[in-house]
Every structure is written in C-alpha cells, then in structure tokens.
Amino acid sequence: MSEIIYEVENISFRYPGYERDVLNGASISLHKGEILCILGPNGAGKTTLLSCMAGLLKPFAGTIRLCGRDLTGMSEKETARLVGFVPQMHVPSFDYRVIDFVLMGRAPHTGLFSRPTAAEEQQCMEVLENMGLAHIAEKSYLDISGGERQQLLIARAIIQSPEAILFDEPTAHLDYGNQHRTLSRIKQMASEGYSVVITTHNPDHALLLGDQAAIVSEDGTVTQGATSDILTEEILSEVYGMDIRIRYIEELGRTACLVPGL
Amino acid sequence: MQSTHLSSGGNGHKGRLVIPALFVVLLALILACLCIGKYQISPGECLKILAGKLTGAQPKWDGMDENMLMGVRLPRVMASVIVGAALALSGAVYQGIFKNPLVSPDFLGVSGGACVGAAIAILLSFSSVMVQITAFAGGLAAVAVTMLIPKLLRSESGIMLVLAGIIVGGAMSSILGFIKYIADPETQLAAITYWQLGSFAYVDNKSVLSILPLSIAAAAVLIGMSWWINILSLGDQEAKSLGARVDLLRSVCIICSTLLTAGAVCISGTIGWVGLVIPHFGRMLAGSDNRTLLPASMIIGSIFMLFVDTLTRMAGPAEMPVSILTGLIGAPFFAWLLYRQRRILN
C-alpha cells in the first residue's frame, strides 16, 4: 500500500443555526496517487466534506490528518502547501490576465510582503503550455470560455504544487466534451502522483475514473470502498431512489452506469 | 533572473510603461501648479528656489517669490499630491479586498466619523489644529466601531463588514445632523459645511508634515502587500484555500487605508469621488493587477487632485470648495468609465 495522504476519522459538522448534522461521523481515507469520487444526493454534504478536508470548514468532532499531521494544528499556509482546492465555480472579480490569475496559486509559497518571482511566472507559463493554454496567457480571463476558466482553476492548483487536489463538482458547469476532457486531465494528474478527491453527481464519472468511491448519505454518514464494491446497482438505486443499471459494454471495454428509461 | 518572455518581470506588460509615464506627468504638473496662480512665478525661478533650498545655497532670487512658493504654493501642492494619492490608494485597496468595484474609501465610516470629530471641535470653538486632531480621531473611532460589529455578531464575512459600515455611516450622519442643528448658523454651521466640502486653502507646512510620516508608512505597507490584495479579491473562501489568513490581511489593509484616509481628511476636509473613480481609471490604464494598479492609482490620484485644486484656485474671485469640482468632474467621468467596464459589471 502506498503512502497515506488523507485520514478523515469520524468527523461531524453542522452549519451554525441549523438543527441537522450535515456530516455525522464521516470517515474517509486516501492514498498517494489515488482518485476518490464522492457521490451522494443533493444536499447530502459532499461539498461540506470537501470543504472540511480543505480546512475551509472546521468539524466539531473527529479528526482530519493530512500527510500525517492534524489539520486543526496547521496554518492556512501550511494546509495550502499540501492541498489545492478547485472550486465548482469561480466568480470573476477583476479583469486579471490569465497568467496573473494562475500565478495566484503561488500564494502558499509567497511571503506577506513579497510577490512571485520571474522564475515562478515562467513556471506558470510552462503549466499553461502543458495544458495547451499558452495562447491565452496574456488575455483577460473575462474573455475566455467557461471551459477554459475551469482549466485555469486546475492550472492554479497545479502551480500550488500540493500533495492532494480536491475538486468540487469539476464537471458541473461544462459541456459534454469539456466534462470528459476534465476527467481525463484528472486521471492523468493522479498518474503523475497527485492524490485526487472529486465530488460528482454522475456515477458514470466515478466508473470512468476508477479507484475509490464514497457515498455521502442523507444521514451524514459516508461509505467508502473500491469503486466496483460501492457502485453497485443496489446501492445506487437506493441512493438515488430509482432503478439504475450497471452494465459492462463489450465494445467500449468498460462498465457504464445507465438508467433503463424514464 | 532575467527573462525575455513577454509576460515576465512580475509587473505585467502594461504597468511597466504606464507608471514611469504617469510619474513624469505628475512631476511636470507639480512644477506647473507651483508656478501658476494669481501670483505668477516663472518655472526657472521656481526650480532655482527649490534647488537653492535643497542645497542651502545663498538666496539669489526674489523674496516675494520665495515666500509665495515655500509658504503658500508648496504646502498646498504637497497636500494635493498626498491627499489625492492617499484617497485613490485606499479606494483601490478597498475595492480589491471587498471584491467590489463600487466601493469608496469612506464606506466603513471614516469620513463620517471625521466629519463628526471636526464638527464637535468646531462646535466647541477649538483651534484649527484641534479640529484636525479630532477629525483624525473621529475617523479612526468610526472604523473601529465598524470593525467591532461583525465581531459582536460573530460573523466575520466581508459582507457583514460592509453592512456594519452602512450602520455606522448612518449613525454618523445623524449625529452630524444634530450637531449642525444646534450649531450657531452664522459661524459654526458655515464652518462645518465648508469643512465637509473639502479645501486646500488653509493647509500649511505644519499640517502637511504632521500627516506625512504616517501616510508614507501606511502606503508602504499597502504597496508591499499589493500582490496579496489580488488574492483577497478572489473572495474569502478561495483566498483561504490559497493559504491567505483572510481576517488578518483584511484587517491590516483596513487599518492602513483608514490611517491614510483619516490623515487626508483631517488636513483637507472630506473630498468625494477621488477614491471611487481614480482606481477605475487606473485599471483602464495599468490593468487590474494590484501590483501595478496601486502605484498607478496613487499617481493618478495626485494628478487629479492637483488639477482640481489648481482649478479651484484659478476659477473665480473666491475659492470654490474642492468637492464641488471633484463631484462635477467625477460623476460624469465615472459614468463613462462604467460604460467602458460594462463587461465586468454584467
């Protein structure tokens, strides 16, 4: 077994002013180079779980260890050096150039009164080149497509050079082609050694990415296991309250998740 | 580390040329504004006196010119430069940290508090130095109350701070209304109203020098943190996920901006529009990256303030308050800038 990156043990979380625990004794583990897909019905707490893992929310019970260290004892900067967070959507504020936006990923490595160096800017250019985005580097990030902006969020997480990258529904706002391009990028990143957690509404995406899957139930508990053990017809039909089929498709050489009809 | 790539150098291609160009314009304008007025001084004479004063040379110039330049024009020009730069810089910082391009430096209550402070001092017939001190203190106190409200309500979000600013601003304007209501309409009310409209007519070397060190220190901190203001402009969550201590950074920015604005207001009275409009103009010229936007905004703010103040000196027989002109120029200018920037506002 490879090195363990995340150990989430029995965390519980409740938003202030609410009666219900969104997470109730949730546990998760993630090893180096693994991809974990988190599924669950709307409002079950997928994003909450991810936010807790990124240190953006503090669970009131349980522990989260990141690379062997307790997350509660780590500063924002220390956390950000180990984990990158790719939000579902980025609402642009000002008219930044693409390169300057991606460069912001260097923040956890930059002092309070300093700024990124020319070498770091060069590094950003290389990441953009690798992603096939060098041609937009000088453009305003208001003038690019939603798919490209999603790619920039990923580029920014890469330039952050963390151990783990958490994606909150990375395919939610993308067209069919860009969804699958993003998934294949994520798979490639895992093969390069990043440990990846993504939340998704599409079980088929979890089947495509393989590795590990977890389901957040409405009661705030989490079931994790190998994708083939978790994404069964019984469990998925139960979670989404409808008939769901998993079939091996000879022609494609993979299993797919489908609904029989409406 | 020298790189020939177009985007290298850390500043972005736009700002590298814009800032020196703006600086040259500012220097030329300073010289022009030192010379022109109802009493004219020739540019050569002006430079000779300034150089002579710096080197301590024997005076070989007209004494009238020297008194006019050193005693009247220079403090006034310096005050315009400092106040314009301070207001534009704090405006740009506030717009960045609150992720809102429609915010101005006084929206956390600093101007309202300064007005109340100055009005109380005028009401009690204090000296003009005391008016400055109470205005400064009033501005700081108002912002302190604004920052305390989210802490009391246990909600540290940026939105809560904006709402707290509205609460404090509203309270300050009521208190000011009450002071004006009980003030002597012949003398005190006029003085308060005039103070609220802003003017550089009464600045002297002493008042300029009294705010200079603090203003330079606060501006240096903000310029030093300019790249982090980019990070804060992404919003609390994203900034935090990039390792920013959002509350700490935002507090430092607010404290420095407040010191700058309070310092400016206490020597010139409240001056509207500069802090709101100039950063937009800066973004158009130098781009949105705060590393170049902040210095560019400062220089443009100085240029604008100098221009407007010189207009008020020249316009009529009596000097017009500065805010009248900044509003008359600023409002339509802002409308035009918003039209240019409609992309981001949509």
Describe the structure.
The complex is a heterodimer of chains A (about 260) and B (about 350). Chain A contains 9 helices and 12 strands. In chain A, helix 4 packs across helix 5 (about 145-160). A 6-stranded mixed beta sheet of chain A has the order 6-7-8-3-9-10, sandwiched between helices. Chain A has a 4-stranded antiparallel beta sheet with strand order 2-1-4-5, with helices on one face. In chain A, strands 11-12 form a two-stranded antiparallel sheet. Chain A is globular, with a radius of gyration of 19 Å. Chain A has a domain at about 5-90 and about 160-230: 3-Layer(aba) Sandwich (Rossmann fold), CATH 3.40.50. Chain A is α/β, with parallel strands linked by helices and about 260 residues long. The N and C termini of chain A lie far apart (about 45 Å). The mean pLDDT of chain A is about 95. Chain B is mainly alpha-helical and about 350 residues long. Chain B has a single domain (about 75-345), classed as ABC transporter involved in vitamin B12 uptake, BtuC (Orthogonal Bundle). Helix content of chain B is about 75%, strand content about 0%. Chain B has helices at about 15-35, 45-55, 65-95, 110-125, 130-150, 160-180, 190-195, 205-225, 225-230, 235-240, 245-270, 275-285, 290-315, 320-340, 340-345. In chain B, helix 1 runs antiparallel to helix 3, helix 3 (about 65-95) runs antiparallel to helix 11 (about 245-270) and helix 4 (about 110-125) packs parallel to helix 6 (about 160-180). The interface of A and B includes residues 110 and 116 of A.
Keywords:
heterodimer; A: Rossmann fold; six-stranded mixed sheet; four-stranded antiparallel sheet; B: 346 residues; ABC transporter involved in vitamin B12 uptake, BtuC; 76% helix; globular
- What is the number of domains of chain B? 1
CATH fold assignment of chain B? ABC transporter involved in vitamin B12 uptake, BtuC
Distance between the termini of chain A: 43 Å
Shape of chain B: globular
Q: Estimate the strand proportion of chain A.
A: 15-25%
Give helix % range of chain B: over 70%
